[in-house]
Amino acid sequence: MSVTLLKSSQEEAVISIKIDAQTIENAIMKQYKVAMEGMEQDAPTLPLSNQKLLSLHPQTDIWASQVLNEMLPVYYNNAISELKLKPMAIRQIKPKKTKIGEPYVVEIRVALAPEIELKEYEGLKVSYTPVIATDEDVITQIASMREQHGTGDDDDALLKRLSFDSMEQLKTEVRKTIEAQAEEKTELNKKTAVLKTLIDTNPCVAPEEVIEQQLMVQLDQLHQQLGEQGMNKYLKDSDKTIKDIKTEMRPETEVEVKKNLLLTAIAENKNFKVTEDEVKQILLKQSRLITDPSLSYEDFRKRAEETPGVMDHFNRSILIEKTIAYIIKHAVFQKLEPQRVLN
């Protein structure tokens, strides 16, 4: 592969990526050989070059398209890394017409991340709402259990249903559970307050096309979650259009884009690095979500490394979380009026 920076400005860059002809030909030949398995009788009987074989096959254009779709993300990521660019979005992909035996050349125009002026991110003064577990919460939770199991005020029936020996034991377990919930909600409130303060303290502009790109990703995820019929029903029942949904999503999406811009800039400013142990931990966590028991960690990692963009996504996630943890650690917190966990 060879990469050339054709044009660069503060807002965008145009790069040219050239993949040599032999690499393309070898990849397409793999597709050809898979298609020819069990069909040797249909293959030409005379010895032909790879290029001639591919030129005669009607599926070659389809295979070439598949190969390039698989290869281009990897070459693109390598090019961005080599040129040390910070793209926010791809604006245009312009492949040049080619044929078997010639290199594949594509020009890609990308929007670059804006320069972020960091004003303050250490020692942020942050007010947050702590969440606490009270005796009233314990009573409320047990009352909910009585209703759920239909035991009324019969303590013995409730204890039998829940396999506890005494009400004190049940109350202790309930308190332990809701205290864990309160602690989790408190940490979430602290994190949310820190990120809001960070954005308010360091104003920046979220590029419009990045917001639009994120909105389209969220709409696509909603579409996949609901399915075609479910999406149509949702739009009909809510009396909304796609434009309405985008308008509703936009404020939160804009905040998310700004947050990521700031956290990325801070990570670079502090020169944070991703360690091998951190990568392993996140991959182990993800691998546990896979229901295939035969998939080992090594196999999962290999699959992740071979899938374009996956490892980059994990690395970015680690850096973002590491940066958030750093800001929280160095923030100055002020507690507001506590909130009950079951409020």
UniProtKB/TrEMBL annotation:
Pfam families, alphabetized: Trigger_C, Trigger_N
Entry-linked Gene3D superfamilies: Trigger factor ribosome-binding domain, Trigger factor, C-terminal domain
MF-aspect GO terms: peptidyl-prolyl cis-trans isomerase activity
GO BP field: protein folding; protein transport
Designated name of the protein: Trigger factor protein (TF)
Recorded superkingdom: Bacteria
Coiled-coil stretches noted in the UniProt entry, renumbered to this chain: none
Residues covered by the Trigger factor ribosome-binding bacterial domain: 64-144
Trigger factor C-terminal domain boundaries: 166-328
Presence of the UniProt keyword Isomerase in the record: yes
Organism listed in the record: Desulfuromusa kysingii
Keyword terms of this UniProt record: Isomerase, Rotamase
SUPFAM superfamilies found in the cross-reference section: Triger factor/SurA peptide-binding domain-like, Trigger factor ribosome-binding domain
InterPro entries (UniProt xref): Trigger_fac_C, Trigger_fac_C_sf, Trigger_fac_ribosome-bd_bac, Trigger_fac_ribosome-bd_sf, Trigger_fact/SurA_dom_sf
